[in-house]
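Appendix B. Chain record.
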Amino acid sequence: MSTLIHITVRFYAELSSFLPASKRLGAVALALRERDSVKDVIESQGVPHTEVDLVLANGEPVDFTYCVADGDRITVYPAFRRIDVSDTSLVRPTPQREARFVLDVHLGRLAAHLRLLGFDTLYWNQADDPDLARISHDEERILLTRDRGLLKRGNVTRGYHVWATDPDAQIVEVLRRFDLLHAVAPFTRCTRCNGLLERVAKADVLDQLEPKTRLYYEEFARCTGCGHVYWKGSHHDRMAQVIERLSAG
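C-alpha cells predicted for this chain:
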C-alpha cells in the first residue's frame, strides 16, 4: 500500500472565491496518493492556474512543474497590484507590451466595450474552447471567460476569470485587473470586426447616415476593415462615464 503524501495549501485574497465555503478560511489539508505537480494540486481545488501570480513551497518560490512532497506548505497568491514580484515569481507570464484579448462566446457585450475603448479584442459567437485556447496561446492574448475549466487548459498561459455578470461592471473589472486605464484609446477600433477606425469627412459618408444622424452629428469615423461608420452617440457618453468612474478610484 502506498504512503499518502500530506500537504497544506493556502489560497490568498480573491483566489479563495474559487473554493467551497468550507475551505476559504486558513490552510486546506490534503492527502495525496502521489507527488502531483503544484499546478495539478491548485487546479484540483477549483483555482485556474491563470489566476495565480506567485506560488511558494515552504517559503520558496516554485513554478507549476514543482512536485509536492510530504509535509509541504504551499501558499498561492493572486495578481499583485501594488507590489512588483516579477523577480520572484516563477509562474507569472512575460509582461505584454500591449494588452490584447480573446473572449469566449458568453462575453460579446464585454468584447464590444473593450473594442470601444481601443483594445485589440477577438470574439466570435461560435468559437469553441479548443480554438479559444489555441488562439490565446499562439497569439499571446489574454483569454477572458467565466468558464474556469477553459482557463485550466494546459496551453493557456494568459487568462482571467470574469466575475461580474453586468457588461458595464465587467469592463470596470477588467480595466482594474490589468491596470489599463492609461491605455484607453476610445473610438479607435470597430466594435463589429475589431478593425481600426479612421476619421472621415461627413460628406464622404452622407449616404450611409440616417436623417437624424445627419442633422445632429458632424464628426465621423469609418472602419478600415468592414467600412462601418461611427459617430459619438450614446456609446461615447457611457464609456466616458466608465473612464471617469475608474479615474476617481
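Further analysis of this model is presented in Appendix C.
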